[in-house]
Amino acid sequence: MVEYSEEGKDRRITQLRKGILELAIMGVLYNERHYGYSLVRVLCERGSIALKEGTIYPILARLDRDGLVGSQWVESAQGPPRKYYSLTASGRQLFDELSPEFDALVSLVRLKREAPEQAHEGKKLVIRKA
Amino acid sequence: MNNYPEVVAKIANDYLDRVKAQLRLVPVREQAEFLAEIESHLYEAYQQMAGEDDVARILAVLRNFGEPAEVVFERLPHTMARSGKKRNVPLYIVGGIFIALFGIPLGFGGLGVLVGILAALAGLLVAFCTTAGSVILVGALCVLLGLVQALFPALFDSLVAHGVIQMGGPVGDFLDHFTHFEQGLMFILFGSVWLACGWGMLRLGRYLFRGLRFLAMLLFDRTRRFARGVRGKLRPENRDVPRVNHVAAV
Q1: Distance from CA of A99 to the nearest CA of B (A)
Q2: Of residues A40, A58, A79, nearest to B43 (C-beta)
Q3: Which end of chain A is more exposed for a tag (fewer CB within 10 A), N or C?
Q4: Rounded distance, CA A65 to CA B77, Å?
Q5: Interface pTM (ipTM) of the complex?
């Protein structure tokens, strides 16, 4: 039996989140605009995940560069100005296209979790070499 | 405007300096905007962070925010942050310069050495064959002279009188002690020895030719393998060809 170290598990979780986080950010920005801190709060509260808050900014910068989100600096009475982000039309279109893909992947993962173990008994992976 | 306590401002500014250091390859304008955004986030998070101790609060905020290297890592490839594929572009440029300055001349030098070795081996073979041919020719002439001397002594004397055959000195004095027929036999014997030597050289030359041909083919084969290896490295899609050609669940 293969045992994964905690470090290896954390690394995989981080990698998994990085791939999905971009889609999650686009999902949050789909209907409402947010600035960085508020976006993090929404992601943490809705997703109930521990997130390194700084990781969203490079993602936002990349989305901005690709034209998937628009940004605007707005003065704040409570402190430094805030940079608000909102999904552009092309961002919405891409999100609409990616969502079904993501749902399909999630359904695959759930299918594996719900499938009875007996279904795999008696099957072997055979590799034939040339 | 930030209303940090002095010690908190110092910690926050120190953190921003560390982020800035990670972004030194980023254009200044993008750098400033990125830092302003982070500063805004830190300030708001600090305000929202509960606690009595200011230092503990800002440290908790920075801990939640992540290390500067993590914040910029692999997410700004267009700015050539120190990650991702584009990070290697300067290395490729330096590598290209080194190859242009040293690799190509050395490559031509190596090619020159290779051609020189092959030419030297070919020259050695030609010289050997020429020597063997000369030995055989000398032997054949000696045998012919011996036959002439033994069978047609008048013709031989005529050739000597006309200067075609010049034989004087100690060799001539030595041969005067023998009859024409005996002289002819000595010439034939001497020529036969030379012919045997030439034939032996040709026999040995066959092995020498095979050895040199083996060396040349070996050099050619190694060169071809090297060129194929370089071509394979330049075409990544040719690598990692799966050895397994069929996978099936039974």
Answers
A1: 22
A2: A79
A3: N
A4: 11
A5: 0.74
